[in-house]
Amino acid sequence: MVMQYANHGNLRQFLNGEFNSLNWYNKFKILCQIAHGLGNIHKEGLIHQDFHSGNILSHDNFKGFDDFKYFISDLGLSKSANEKSEKNKKNVYEVLPYVAPKVLRGKIYTQESDVYNNFGTITYEIFTGLSPYYDMLHEEFLVIKICHQVLDLKSLN
């Protein structure tokens, strides 16, 4: 597989360096490109299953933020949305802060998991500049917090 070189690394790296330079228009434009890419994955009948800011690559042609392109990468854990196998439902392979609560509760991954939790969490990250649950260790207490849907939005003010 050959992919375009991402000269700005992944979205998390980009936000670490450029968040304060982004206006709301830039943030919405990033989200639109990511939503379009995720929509294409879902139209192909796939579930990403490992969708987070580290798997969104950014590239530009040195013309400013309006020229940036965002690509979803790392489809290694993706599966068919029609696959009903529950053999892996007890195994969680994602980056913990991005895992859907229902997956942590033992349900299977779905396209809705990609959208509801993963895209929603990436939206939070783009709007705030913060990694989800940045102030917590990624262990059992974070699992409890995710399952109770507590994501602090105060930083949006």
TrEMBL record:
Coiled coil: none annotated. Keywords: ATP-binding, Kinase, Membrane, Nucleotide-binding, Phosphoprotein, Transferase, Transmembrane, Transmembrane helix. Residues 1-157 form the Protein kinase domain. One of its GO terms (molecular function) is protein kinase activity. It is a single-pass membrane protein. It is found in: Membrane. InterPro entries: Kinase-like_dom_sf (IPR011009), Prot_kinase_dom (IPR000719), RLK_Ser/Thr-Kinase (IPR052232), Ser-Thr/Tyr_kinase_cat_dom (IPR001245). GO terms for cellular component: membrane. The keyword RNA-binding does not apply. This is Kinase-like domain-containing protein.
